[in-house]
Task: inverse folding
């Protein structure tokens, strides 16, 4: 796995070692007592083995594009790296707390955008003083205008993506995990987000980017990883990995 | 040699952490056997495991680091809870005051069950407000996890912050109730004695008690949402056997019930909490043995509640 070290290689920022992730599905999402008791006997309970032994190393400054068909385990893997899911076996080592930006992030739907920024940044560990200093620039970055004082329920998915991106990048994480979160934004926001990513990642930041827009991946990432049915199918230069993935079209269509 | 020893120590720590994963440990040892002392081993040593067990001390430190979140979160809840009512946040105060009115009507006027208490209005108000603090705290704790799924799916933070901050949130509204209590004390001629200096201590212990219960309720309600339906009924029962509206101990002592019943009633920590508050506002004596019992139960509840809650730390917001 590890190639003998060359002096030019930057230090590791992440090591994923034979990670397996499972999650449970209940036929009814929120089962009442009776149902939960009966499902214990195995009727309605299904265990999804979403990630099956994935290993790779990431070095500081790398941007990795992750591709794979729907349900291939990409989002589950990112959630595990972000610490939101626990692998059943294997290990994830990091040099900093990774921040995940998922497309379905709802935060606190009843609160306004402004309140969500406050509470989100504080939940991520920002101090109250720092937040007071920075909240105006975070709000400005979202370009949400008056909508910042409206409840999140009224937001479109693109507006939510702007908000979440602003919150997640506000604490300058060294590892960013982006799960399709930029795809819902308009062109202006995507350009702005790209510029912010460039500054944030600099030379030592690490990015794992899940996207179905292959051109986005080619533009931002030099390395690609292809996941299929929870297994790592390819890991290499992004163009080669995309080529392999595209050549496997038949498989994708069948699924 | 001097430069080597810290490196050794580092690789020692990583192999200890790696006991969580056999594969990685094998991986590292095979690397070590191929090129002993090469930088590969050190590379991973600079990293930390994402899913290692977090000690209680570290967990509490993480919570403390996010204390601004814990104090900002309740205001959001308070803001949104009566958003669509005409009287808005006034309901936080109107609700307990109306309860006092209803119980006064039923127990003092219809049933004449004052049990010879001089200042029954103050006695009842203290009981309703302080009991209400516990019941509302536990209910808020129970829903703290289930109503913040969106936040938990996007961010990692110690989940115990949610029920704990929900309990603190109830303290905010209780502050206004305390103000009303002082007014009632003055208006009913009870006055305010120097016993008031014990109030912060009593409130602190009471809050600890509420946090313990809220943590337990939070985990149970995450597994079975039936819990939040049951809690109001449990507290209604508890209210009657804790002597919120009538002096429960006096009634039992005067009845034919065996002595054991009286002792069991006295074990109820809610009875002991009410005794303490009533001592502050109405005077009389406090049973130190009962107070010690209450403090012990509170300490046990906090420790147990915390452990019980943390078992499911990573499962919250998922199922």
Result:
């Amino acid at each position: 796995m590890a190639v003998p070290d060359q002096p030019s290689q930057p230090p590791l920022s992440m090591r994923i070692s034979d990670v397996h992730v499972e999650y449970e599905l209940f036929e009814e999402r929120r089962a009442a007592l009776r149902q939960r008791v009966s499902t214990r006997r195995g009727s309605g309970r299904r265990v999804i083995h979403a990630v099956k032994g994935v290993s790779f190393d990431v070095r500081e400054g790398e941007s990795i594009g992750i591709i794979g068909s729907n349900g291939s385990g990409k989002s589950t893997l990112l959630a595990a790296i972000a610490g939101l899911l626990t692998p059943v076996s294997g290990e994830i080592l990091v040099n900093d707390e990774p921040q995940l930006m998922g497309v379905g992030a709802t935060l606190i739907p009843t609160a306004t955008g402004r309140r969500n920024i406050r509470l989100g940044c504080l939940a991520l560990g920002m101090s109250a003083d720092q937040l007071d200093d920075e909240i105006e620039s975070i709000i400005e970055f979202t370009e949400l205008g008056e909508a910042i004082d409206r409840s999140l329920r009224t937001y479109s998915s693109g507006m939510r993506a702007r908000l979440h991106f602003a919150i997640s990048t506000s604490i300058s994480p060294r590892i960013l995990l982006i799960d399709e979160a930029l795809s819902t934004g308009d062109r202006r926001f995507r350009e702005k987000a790209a510029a912010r990513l460039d500054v944030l990642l600099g030379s030592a930041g690490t990015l794992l980017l899940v996207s179905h827009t292959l051109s986005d991946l080619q533009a931002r990432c030099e390395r690609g990883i292809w996941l299929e049915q929870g297994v790592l199918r390819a890991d290499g230069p992004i163009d080669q990995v995309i080529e392999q993935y595209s050549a496997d079209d038949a498989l994708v269509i069948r699924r | 040699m001097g430069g080597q020893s810290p490196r050794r120590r580092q690789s020692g720590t990583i192999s200890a952490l790696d006991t969580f994963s056999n594969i990685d440990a094998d991986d590292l040892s095979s690397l070590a056997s191929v090129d002993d002392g090469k930088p590969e081993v050190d590379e991973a040593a600079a990293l930390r495991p994402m899913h290692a067990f977090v000690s209680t001390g570290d967990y509490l430190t993480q919570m403390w680091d996010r204390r601004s979140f814990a104090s900002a979160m309740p205001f959001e809840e308070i803001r949104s809870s009566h958003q669509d009512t005409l009287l808005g946040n006034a309901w936080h105060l109107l609700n307990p005051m109306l309860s006092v009115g209803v119980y006064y009507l039923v127990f003092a006027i219809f049933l004449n069950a004052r049990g010879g208490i001089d200042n029954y209005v103050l006695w009842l108000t203290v009981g309703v407000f302080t009991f209400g603090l516990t019941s509302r705290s536990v209910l808020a704790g129970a829903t703290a996890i289930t109503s913040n799924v969106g936040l938990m799916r996007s961010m990692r933070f110690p989940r115990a912050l949610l029920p704990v901050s929900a309990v603190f949130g109830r303290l905010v509204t209780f502050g206004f109730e305390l103000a009303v209590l002082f007014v009632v004390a003055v208006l009913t001629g009870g006055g305010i004695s120097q016993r008031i200096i014990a109030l912060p201590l009593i409130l602190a212990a009471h809050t600890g008690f509420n946090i313990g219960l809220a943590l337990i309720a939070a985990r149970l309600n995450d597994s079975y949402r039936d819990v939040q339906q049951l809690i109001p009924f449990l507290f209604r029962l508890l209210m009657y056997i804790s002597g919120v509206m009538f002096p429960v101990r006096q009634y039992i002592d005067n009845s034919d019930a065996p002595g054991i019943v009286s002792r069991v009633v006295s074990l109820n920590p809610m009875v002991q909490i009410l005794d303490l508050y009533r001592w502050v506002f109405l005077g009389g004596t406090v049973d130190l043995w009962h107070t010690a019992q209450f403090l012990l139960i509170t300490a046990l509840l906090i420790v147990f509640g915390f452990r019980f809650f943390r078992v499911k730390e990573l499962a919250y917001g998922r199922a």
